[in-house]
Amino acid sequence: MMYWLLLIGVPLLLGLYAQFKISSAYQKNVQLGSRSRITGREAAEAVMASAGISDVEIVEVDGHLTDHYDPLNKRLALSAPNYRGASLAALGVAAHEAGHAIQHKQGYAMMKFRQVMVPAVQIAAPITYIFLGFGFFFLGSMFKVLLPIAIAALMVMVLFQLVTLPVEFDASRRAKLQLVNLGILGRDEMVGVDETLNAAALTYVAAFVSSLGNLLYLLLAFTGGSRNEE
């Protein structure tokens, strides 16, 4: 029971806290307009132009915080409030995604490694989610047989999320630097950007901690089961 609380319960609480932080930080700063009145789309375009990037398409997408950079198609996608809005949150998120485009252009090593892992993650992710979501209840006697497969899949996920951390932190660093250097935001306005991007970064930390906790829990179940059989 204690192992479950430490390896599953604590990461779960951290994840809930991270979701609360990003939601509250974004909702607060999306209501604070920037003095420049530059939209998120214009900010992303300016940040990329400063790095000599002119071949990345900026598009508007549906959803809430669905913003992302697609390196395969060289497409930067911004949700409507961040594409059209001129808030501190919108500019921070847009510049962050532009930071990923800069990483791509400059061949940032951790981003390249992350992209190489994508095919493996596409296989590992559904195995992990199905096993963790239903394995304990429906696999019965097959649980121990399939446990090594679940552990291997979760190892891939943990490594992927670990590599994601420096990629996200670096993109935020680039975003904050360029927003000030390009005169898009004043230094006093960066408080809202910092709050938004730091909260977003916490969600990636929480995802890594959660997966790591699940992995350690499964490893304990595997080693414990092996000892019992002996």
Short description:
By secondary structure, this protein is mainly alpha-helical. The chain is built from seven helices and three strands; from the N terminus they run ααβββααααα. A hairpin with a 4-residue loop joins strand 2 (68-70) and strand 3 (75-79).
Overview features:
single chain, 230 residues, mainly alpha, three-stranded mixed β-sheet, 7 helices, elongated, disordered C terminus
Write the layout of secondary structure elements.
Elements: H1 2-29, H2 40-50, E1 57-61, E2 68-70, E3 75-79, H3 80-84, H4 88-106, H5 109-138, H6 143-181, H7 190-229
Parallel strand pairs: 1-3
Antiparallel strand pairs: 2-3
Helix pairs in contact: 1-7, 2-4, 4-6, 4-7, 5-6, 6-7
Low-pLDDT segments: 226-230
Average of the residue pLDDT scores? 90
Strand order of the largest sheet: 1-3-2
Given the structure, what is the number of helices? 7
User: How many strands, which pairing sense, and closed or not: the largest β-sheet?
Assistant: 3 strands, mixed
Can you count the beta strands? 3
SSE topology string: HHEEEHHHHH
Distance separating the two termini:
23 Å
Please tell me what the overall shape is.
elongated
